[in-house]
Amino acid sequence: MIAIGSDHAGFRLKEKIKDFLKKREVEFYDFGPENEDSVDYPDFGEKVAKAVSQGKAERGILICGSGLGMTIVANKFKGVRATLCHDEYTAKMSRAHNDSNLLTLGARVLDEEMALKIVEIWLDTPFEGGRHLRRLNKIKEIEDKNFIEGVSK
Ligand code: RB5
Fold it and tell me: Of 14, 79, 118, 119, which cross-links 6 as Cys (Cβ 3.0–4.6 Å)?
């Protein structure tokens, strides 16, 4: 299951991505918002990243204007590897090398076609493992050393 959310700037792209996921028969849960009224991205970023961190969703997608705010929020959560992607290359690498479990997108930076292409690549590209797993394990060690139950030491 994919958890999806946005702020007002990402709302329209969120709806397009939901259509795309439906066509591909990918199960998702929409954490909102339900319209384009102005909201604060941390409120929605928290919900989606928490679902991924707690294992309630396998992966997450978060969209704001630049993608930057959602990336900052999502990477506060243990076990979340949120990656801001802006082209085919970063989408592919985010999965192959970083085992991204949360895709962040900037709706004001990307056209719709590129955004959907990124989602498609991110869904379809497997993690390569090997030396990249060693590096991810080091990230996990950093997390374990510096956080207790999500609170910075
Ligand atoms: C909202 O204006 C904008 O700041 C937000 O969508 C996002 O880009 C934040 O990083």
Answer: 14
